[in-house]
Amino acid sequence: MVTKCLRSLNGLFLILCAAATTFPLLNVLATSFSGSTAILSGEVFLWPVDWTMTAFSNLFKDGQLMNAMKNTVIITVAGTIMQMTATTLAAYSLSKTRLKGRRIALLLILFTMMFGSGLIPMFLLLKNLHILNTFWAIWLPGLISAYNLFVMKSSFEGLPGELEESATIDGASDLTIFTRIVIPLSKPVLAAISLFYAVGLWNVYAPALYFITDSSKMPLTVKLYQMIQLPDSNLLDSSDLSFVPPEGMKAAAIIITVLPILCLYPFLQKYFVKGVLLGSIKG
Amino acid sequence: MEDLAVVETVAGGRVPSSKKRNRLLYYLGRDRYLYLFLLPALVFYLVFKYSPLYGELIAFKDFQIMKGIWNSPWVGLKHFNDLLSSQDFWQVFRNTMLLNVYKLVFVFPAPIILALMLNEVRFNGFKRLIQNLLYLPHFISWVVLGGVIVAVLSPSTGIINTLLEKGFGIEPVYFMAHSGWWPVVFTFSSIWQSAGWGTILYLAAMATIDPQLYEAAKIDGASKLRQIWHVTLPGIRPTIAILLILQMGQITDVGFEQVYNLQNEAVFGVSDVISTYVYRMGLQAAQYSYSTAVGLFQGVIALILMFAVNKITKAMGENGLW
Q: How much is the ipTM here?
């Protein structure tokens, strides 16, 4: 009896936690579709009041946010491809114990997980390489995440060795083994790591803030931050017929930024969990 | 060459020549693809992880952008003296430590408690739904989370203040601009963003606990809570230890994005931390040498802390990180 009571309390508490986690997001979603009077009088809770799309059409009319969206898509797609290429190749190479110099390479990588260089030295480096204010300033400094590299390496090490041995006997080179055997067998881990990289790039903020000052090259996150930080009066333009209060505009911009993740999340989240667990098994 | 390599590999990788140079060439030839694969990563680590360490030198110099890193004059520990005697720095340092202490005390246990509760749920569909909802904020940028928090807590239109006013007749509170409330908001936002995702590792650790232990405890008459205390918690102790070390290693580093997206000028006194300070002094005020010194100071302390905590954890009988 006591156990049963505890169990339902437990379930109730978890429901409350999940609700508290999602309500703020739902509230902003509702605000983005609500009419101005409802927003200003604080009537919007979890469902839009006086349904309208004006905030979104205003944002789409303003080319800046669309340009930022384009930048973010380029940064995410091209960046993920580069990160995956570099990480996968290195992880495969480092998964081979016969490789001379492997230990030194692993130690070099491990050390960077404990001690990173400062912001200013990185800034000066990018300046000397003349890639400030280009997407390269986002792509290159974050090309490989040591954590992802180790996850992938241990996953490659877990592949059955017999397959590769017999391929070697048949005269296959490391290149052939890699493209014909290792890659096809590693689809789950490749999917998980690509997703981690892609989400990271979609959400990229600090590097973009540090290294990209050219307004036309800023990603969505930086533009969104500027919008959120604007004093409310700058967004107010009451002469405009399609008036939306700043809270509504900000809510719509937030939703545009987070929408792709919200839409894909239900389908992809099992890969995320898999990715984390893969990493934790071998530490 | 290829044939030879294959034969040698099959024969156990015997080296054909005793001379060192030849041996090196042999390995380079045999594993040429592996070395080629490693090349991009190697270049990346040398250029973007190790070469900036050379740039850290400007912490000991008066860096002038025209002269470059090497030709700028040495000033020894001047910048470190400056920062140790600067009030700003100590305030920022104190804030960083304080916010991290809040994280350690309130945020670190949150996923453990959540995982313990999730672990007791018997109905799988319900469990998965709750988990998915709890994980969600982890995938959202701090810009968005910060924007949502500011919107929800707004004194004029925010839902929280509306509820407080209508439900309890409480005057609207400007949470984000109140030095007393800001750390509370910060702490809650950390729990919001990370507690759900943090449960994954604990749940995985719980799944590996031998069910026989629970059986034995049950036979001995242990209640549910005692089972959690005597079986589940000891079972996840190593996981807790490792995550605690990692957390301690970050005690001098509050994530830049979280603080930057939540702070505003009204609460600089409690919200300005080392990373935001370095950004403001370094990139916005162009005090390159000084802010590099601040960053270096932070990095070294973090490194020392990590070693210290690892040692303590080992002394307590856990595995530690290395």
A: 0.90
